[in-house]
Backbone:
């Protein structure tokens, strides 16, 4: 962990070996034994387009089924079925390059100590932040990589 000059911890820094988790819903994010790339898609929410994919920082927060199974799904008919884990380095290794288009991933935590258990995965196309469902279609190649690099943990 990095500290600033005044010895306060900078919670926005997510180190390479940090394990992250994403709550997974069935059937939209997990189907036929596989994590769907949709698990990492950005959405247009009622309060505006998502700028990052919400992740749980397992070094600060534990996953408790009773807490997370109460989350209201975004898609009607979905149910919480477990969570996926992926290391920050695996997220950052996901990228796509073709015809001058470069999609890359960054992971950052919240700056506040109160929200230290939260991080976001951000997608950049040629250094421009992608938001909501307007994200470039080539981001799907990167979300597929994220899904393939993730490990599913079912809630029993």
Residues:
């Amino acid at each position: 962990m990095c500290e600033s000059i005044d010895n306060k911890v900078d919670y926005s820094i997510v180190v390479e070996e940090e394990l992250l988790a994403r709550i997974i819903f069935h059937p939209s994010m997990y189907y036929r034994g596989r994590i769907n790339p949709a698990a990492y898609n950005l959405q247009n929410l009622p309060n505006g387009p998502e700028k990052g994919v919400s992740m749980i920082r397992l070094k600060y927060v534990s996953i408790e089924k009773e807490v997370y199974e109460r989350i209201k799904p975004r898609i009607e008919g979905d149910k919480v079925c477990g969570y996926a884990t992926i290391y920050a380095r695996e997220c950052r290794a996901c990228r796509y390059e073709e015809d001058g288009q470069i999609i890359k991933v960054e992971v950052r935590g919240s700056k506040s100590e109160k929200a230290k258990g939260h991080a976001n995965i951000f997608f950049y196309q040629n250094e421009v932040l992608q938001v909501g469902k307007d994200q470039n279609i080539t981001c799907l190649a990167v979300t597929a990589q994220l899904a393939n690099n993730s490990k599913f943990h079912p809630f029993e």
Q: What stands out?
A: The chain has one domain: 19-154. The chain has a mean pLDDT of 91. The CA atoms of residues 109 and 115 lie 8 Å apart.
